Amino acid sequence: MALVPYDDRDGFIWFDGKMKPWREAQVHVLTHALHYASAVFEGERAYAGEIFKLTEHSQRLIDSGKLLDFEIPYSLAEIDQACRDTVKANNLIDCYVRPIAWRGSEVMGVSGQANTIHMAVATWDWGSYFDPATKMKGIRLAMAHYRRPDPTTIPCKAKATGLYMICTIEKHRAERAGSADALMLDWRGRVAECTGANIFFIKDGELHTPIPDCFLDGITRRTVIALARKRGYTVNERVIMPEDLPAFSECFIVGTAAEVTPVSEIGAFKYKPGVITETLLNDYMMAVHPAKAALAKAS
Fold first, then answer.
1. CATH of the domain at 161
2. Both ends of the chain: CA-CA distance in Å?
3. What range defines the domain where residue 64 resides?
């Protein structure tokens, strides 16, 4: 199937307060964000026309901008509405939503204090992040070479474009090696996260997940922890070292794009998606589809 370039599609993109035809939503080549990574973004999903945890995502976008030393010129309510309006303008029901804010092109140089802050929202039809035919069997993860940096060197709590440079490199490396994604360690050598998703392990009926002290405490991560505790599962947020990996029986990753995705291999280590992984996957899909959850409860 031929790929449809993202700059040449039908539809509309919300751009600085106005709905623009898709192909007209453009920025200049000398935009500060392109040269100095002064941009923040969110990844969201709409299910049955409703964007899951929308306000949490919008607030994180605002907070990320502040961490990059800029104020997004729209309120929380205005950002929420821009996302809803863009989904509606493109006649989408189940889709991906991408708000982004960035410094413009008034001044070129490291200092961008005089640059206008822009914002846009795009939406598109995007199904499973991983191959649906093999997802339930579990994906393969490679071990990344690059590590999540020391939080004294980066604004690690911002969902900022520049922080994904090493993620792109490692995902490419993993895909070339036949894996779906890569597991990254942090600068101390501890298990951290994948290139765009948090990770969970299961041992003796309990969940174990790394402490997010140098990477994002994902909105999906927090959702899955709440679902697990509602089920009565113990969730251990703790230091996990690479030498701990053989002791776990199940593994899965979570994120807006990944949703809940089982893992079958991390390098030489094997896992078998089991009851807990399947239960939380189903619970998550019910959480993002409230109409389905209500119907299931009623029956």
1. 3.20.10.10
2. 40
3. 12-124
pLDDT digits (tens, 9 = 90+) for 140-178: 999 999 999 999 999 999 999 999 999 999 999 999 999
- Show Cβ contacts of residue 124 under 8 Å, excluding neighbours closer than 6 positions: 6, 9, 11, 90, 92, 95, 96, 98
Domain end call among 124, 158, 181: 124
Q: Which secondary-structure segment (H or E) carries 236? A: strand 235-238
Query: Under DSSP, is residue 127 helix (H, G, I), strand (E, B) or coil?
Result: coil
**Lookup: tokens for 35:** 């040269």
Residue 100 is classified by DSSP as E
- End of a domain among 64, 98, 124? 124
pTM of the shown model? 0.93
Same structural domain, 36 and 151: no
81-134 confidence digits (pLDDT tens): 999 999 999 999 999 999 999 999 999 999 999 999 999 999 999 877 666 666
Known catalytic residue at 159: yes
- Among 159, 171, 272, 297, the active-site one is 159
CA distance 118 to 120: 7
Q: In this structure, what DSSP letter does residue 270 have?
A: E
